[in-house]
Amino acid sequence: MYTQALDIPDQAATALVAPPSHLQPVASAAQARSQSHFDAVMDADGKIEPQDWMPEAYRKTLVRQISQHAHSEIVGMQPEGNWISRAPSLKRKAILIAKVQDEGGHGLYLYSAAETLGTSRDQMLEALHTGRAKYSSIFNYPTVLWADVGVIGWLVDGAAIMNQIPLCRCTYGPYARAMIRICKEESFHQRQGFESLMVQMQGTQAQRDMVQDAVNRWWWPVLAMFGPPDTDSPNTAQTSRWGIKRISNDDLRQRFVDATVPQAKVLGVTLPDADLKWNDSKKCHDYGAIDWDDFWAVVNGNGPCNKERLSNRVNAHTNGQWVRDAAQAYAAKQRARAQHDLMEAA
Ligand code: BYC
User: Fold this and answer.
1) Fewer C-beta within 10 Å: the chain N or C terminus?
2) Mind listing the pLDDT tens digit for each residue in 38-68?
3) 140 close to ligand 1 (CB < 6 Angstrom)
4) Ligand 1 center from residue 135 Cα (angstroms)
5) pLDDT (average), residues 250-266
6) Looking at beta carbons, which pairs linking 303-307 to residues 24 or more positions away fall under 8 Å?
7) Is the CB of residue 157 below 6 angstroms from any atom belonging to ligand 1?
8) What is the pLDDT of residues 261-274, one digit of tens each?
9) Ligand 1 center–CA 299 separation, angstroms
10) Is the pLDDT score of 285 beyond 60?
11) How far apart, in whole angstroms, are the C-alpha atoms of residue 305 and residue 126?
12) Ligand 1 neighbourhood includes 234 CB (under 6 angstroms)
């Protein structure tokens, strides 16, 4: 969607033949102008578009973050997809199918945005399928109860919106624009999760217990989802300078806690943290220690569902090869037909 009319040089190929920096010619006047245009856009908090010159490190950071984000949306279809065939009513099934489809759509907008940076969809998928690329830690936990689906909507989508609203203002145009639509849909997802839990909380004691059990299991992984503490976040300083990250991991986490505590009260569930309390002098909630060892174990491939998620993804891609082949054959046929019609008309 964004790549049409763009002529992006093959950066990987040029990198291979580029001489070491000390042998490279002094930056030309044109390069200096490009750099100062980029700096001026950063200073003015404007937008960089795909056809604009950008530093290689800015491009690489965006490819890293946007592709991880896309992979998270695609892998994130699995935990809830697991419940489509078992949703308790036709209404809940229809809602869940639409939500999971939305996540697939988000992944596609984001892959398209990353492609404008000169990386191909195949390269990104290869990195995911071989386990080199990261995706959000949160999707490596199992959905064992129907209540887990509601909690994903309420807490996981709630955390995602908190993190993603600031991305609508990021300096890379295609990413910022993709995020606007994604955030609108995520807000709906969050509301539907909360509504589903409200209904369950008005049901039987067994239903209320299931909701509480799901909240107990998801709360801490959701807090970790915002990323490591600011003191251990190697990317924050630079991405903040470039106007990609607008609010730090810890500040977003704090905002999420403060927004969620009153919602939990309305719902009638307890958040599983004995240290969670309002701090009147700081005007925010204190909360307990996050288990960062567990977080890194999950990020490094050793969470409860990492292997299952990745093998499902690889199998889906392999089994979908015929669809891609058919789409390409159809496109080739259309092109040939258009060319034939053109010749007939001439
Ligand atoms: N999981 O320096 P840091 C959704 C990595 S999908 C795994 O703070 P950064 C949804 C991080 O990548 C929501 N890895 O990094 C879908 C970095 O490693 P690398 C997904 C994590 O980039 C379906 C290292 O730790 N959202 O909403 O400044 C159903 C150091 O971290 C995680 C996005 O992707 C993690 N949780 O900040 C329902 C949003 N956290 O890359 C819902 C876009 C950190 O240097 N991404 N790491 O090897 C971002 O905003 C940022 O990339 C992050 C991390 C805040 C996630």
Assistant:
1) C
2) 999 999 999 999 999 999 999 999 999 999 9
3) no
4) 7
5) 98
6) 303/137, 303/140, 303/141, 304/140, 304/141, 304/142, 305/79, 305/139, 305/140, 305/141, 305/142, 306/140
7) yes
8) 999 999 999 999 99
9) 10
10) yes
11) 20
12) yes
